[in-house]
Design goal:
This protein has eight helices and no strands. The chain is an all-alpha fold and about 170 residues long.
Length: about 170
Amino acid sequence: MSYQATNPLADEFELGLDGPLTAYWLAFLRVVTGWWFFHAGVTKLIEDGLAFTYGPAYMQQMTGTALGPIPVWMGNNLAWLIAPGVPLFETLIGLALMVGAFTRLAAFGGVIFMTLFWVGNAGFGHGLVNSDLMGLLLFVTVMVVGAGRYYGLDAIIEKLALVERHPKLRYILG
């Protein structure tokens, strides 16, 4: 039991976001998020190749969701794009995150996927906060902090002459 009269938290306390623990954590978060999507995509590729028919079928059944008739139309008319696109883009997004290359672009793709999953599932039986929202927040975090710069290939890519000449490319890196 402590009998210290002063509050130890009253002194200056700072968690340095530029410290090594933060770098390790962001790299770990990026790799785990990447593995999650890579695994989801590559297993679909192994099982069905580029003929992942569940994606369009899932969208055709989304009649009562917050997205209205849009996913049903997409499932009926864009099945040729959705069937190969879901496993291919999940795999590519996951791979890019794991190696830390084009991290912001890949995380933005993950944000699109997770937003569609979150709004599309829209049962919200447990409220607005569900696993789809948590996945969305993971991708947003990876994108906002530029997690590819922490032990990822983006740290190397950003030093290339092409990126030095065109600094706006850093918006898709990091």
